[in-house]
Model the fold of this input.
Amino acid sequence: MGDAAVRLLEVGRGEPLPGELRRRVDLLHYVEKVKPIVEDVRRRGYEAVREYTLRFDGVDVEDPRVPREVLEEAYAALPERLRWALRVAASALRRFHYSTRPPSETWVPGARLRLLPVRRVGAYAPGGAHPYPSTVLHTVIPARAAGAGRVVVATPPRRGGGDVPVSGLMLAAAYVAGADMVYAVGGAQAVAALAYGAGPVERVDKVVGPGNPYVQAAKLLVSGDVGVDMVAGPTELAVVADESAEAEAVALDMLAEAEHGPLSVAALFTGSRRLAEEVAALLEKRAVGGLGMLYVVVAADTGEALRLADEMAAEHLVLYLGGELREEALRGDLAAGVVAAGVPPALLDYAYGPSHVLPTGGAARWRGGLCVYDFLRPIAYVDDSLVGRELLEASIVLAEAEGFGFHAESLRHRLRRLEESGEAGEEGGGRDGV
Amino acid sequence: MGDAAVRLLEVGRGEPLPGELRRRVDLLHYVEKVKPIVEDVRRRGYEAVREYTLRFDGVDVEDPRVPREVLEEAYAALPERLRWALRVAASALRRFHYSTRPPSETWVPGARLRLLPVRRVGAYAPGGAHPYPSTVLHTVIPARAAGAGRVVVATPPRRGGGDVPVSGLMLAAAYVAGADMVYAVGGAQAVAALAYGAGPVERVDKVVGPGNPYVQAAKLLVSGDVGVDMVAGPTELAVVADESAEAEAVALDMLAEAEHGPLSVAALFTGSRRLAEEVAALLEKRAVGGLGMLYVVVAADTGEALRLADEMAAEHLVLYLGGELREEALRGDLAAGVVAAGVPPALLDYAYGPSHVLPTGGAARWRGGLCVYDFLRPIAYVDDSLVGRELLEASIVLAEAEGFGFHAESLRHRLRRLEESGEAGEEGGGRDGV
Done:
């Protein structure tokens, strides 16, 4: 048995989700810490960025720009097996994201709702001990699919990287994903640089991607000045399984989730006590130190297991359910960043289609995973074809009720002009029409 | 001449937008102030809300709930002219928002991207000197159009309101819009109550709507724990007009915008010096104290005027342009919360179709106005039909490159199971297929 804690819980019918499965990260603490960094970068630009990079990453980066030619060289220098894997993953992501692009506009009387792409996107990809090329793919490709004009990647530089202080794998991923530029900048200073511009780092219109709590707190702080996707916390997996599930597959999925780090959470919800015990035993046997929390929750039945998983609103919800129950679950509305029937979450992390940048900490209650909609601005373009007596008069009544004299006057002026031209009744036919 | 400042500026070809037209509200200052309130409400619930309501609004509200029956009574008690105006405005909003609902899902190989409605929405409507029933319509109706299950309104209570400390007009607007409940709660404490729940105030999944900087800062602070629409600042209008425009209409639109308060901004961009001078003269004549800033900007030509307006990315962009220029502008990508050709902004504020809750301070670079998309969660539901050798093997390569052993093991386990069942090559045909 390993060091990791495996908790076996039982939840009766109608009882709420155990408190320990309601996770949230309190970012306010981190907001205090990153505020001076964000303000400093905003004031002093790249000079400040360079100082923080030296302090936090231990590298002095005079110019953080890695242009597309260098990305291509990095790709060419990679072993073919890695190049192939990046291409396969990128292709799976493109299939999903390009296929889910909505029509660029909807026409309605007097207006079009246009879905215009965000022009300049900055994708943050964490560095750390290992490079995360998959995150580059999973942020840049949805942005490109939406039609974003310029897509750049920011990632922390690493020590001893030579001329280009970013791993070749990251650069190659940026090449395959179609990024225009990589900046060797990380942390809160990267978010601030992308939000406000900082010398060689050009300002973007939206910053997306995962990162540690400092990065997330910085995103929260700048969110009035630049678009942000979401405040992402530690990764979470909920599995709902019935008797048809294979215990070993479930246990391996949970261990894969838990190896993201000690704050990650993997939970099995099941109505089957046999499955619960088998999975718990496998987890006990295989779990090692440094893993996240592992929960095995016995519910009254599969319906109850689904209810609890929905209440958790986890980042990933994986279903291992037999025929009818599976179909029913896929038709329902389940709160989760992604709902997957029979797909190992590790496959979703790399090469299935949807982005692995997903809402955590219950955020699936109000948003889904990163997708083309994150890079589209629904903007109403209206013409004056509906301007007529009825709408003008109703607006005058409301303007007066709200105490806005000039509003009412501007509307009366328009009404007068319409009457002069004989077009006032064109739409709606006045009050009697209601 | 009034007290308000009318500034006449001239911008040469290719020159940037004058700095004074780049507005932003620094919310960090307000974040400090509201943080204790948010934390207190989170900890002590409605007891804290009640204390802040007494302190800030001067009313002791034992139970803030105003249920739908009372909303209906308020509607019935309203003069018919106001009832009619609310109905007309609601009907115009419904026409736009129900017509712009996207299909509820997109099928792609192996997945569906489902647009599921946010279940519980809280709409904030400011109170202040005058009630703003229009804001109730402009927040609740898009939420209802998206299919939100429960939609509640929070608005500050007012002194001397008797049993129900909210104006009858606000309650009637909530009735017409189809809200389920009104809470007589305002300010940062209302945002915190909606985010975390507070006794009689039930927690929601997303908080939307305008409000003063305290309300906006509170939205920013809770944005990791509840969905928020945007951080809204003072209102802004950009008008781009050519010789075909009527100076009086333009001036009245600008005065209407400026009467929202001293922080609001209205700017005309035009290539016509004659129009600029006429509008400036009218503004000088009519402007009164307490208005916002009024700018008249002479650009080299209409194209340059549009470029400057795009750079401002104002909340409202109104075009008074002749035939060809107008059509060209409507086909382009203009950064603005709403783009309106020949529609008085006061009409957009009340009864044209799009919501008047729009991005300010340049936020139109990354989002549009409040619309059905704000209340839809695009969530990928995937099945295992694409699980095959190619995607699994590519993912194993990437998992190993990222140092995730259990990820690779869970994928290898699945590959083994597929091979046992003879289905491994079903999709993609393995590495040679790339």
Summary: The first helix of chain A runs from residue 28 to 44. The CA atoms of residues 215 and 320 of chain A lie 34 Å apart. Residues 428-434 of chain A have pLDDT under 50 and may be disordered. The longest strand of chain A covers residues 111-117.
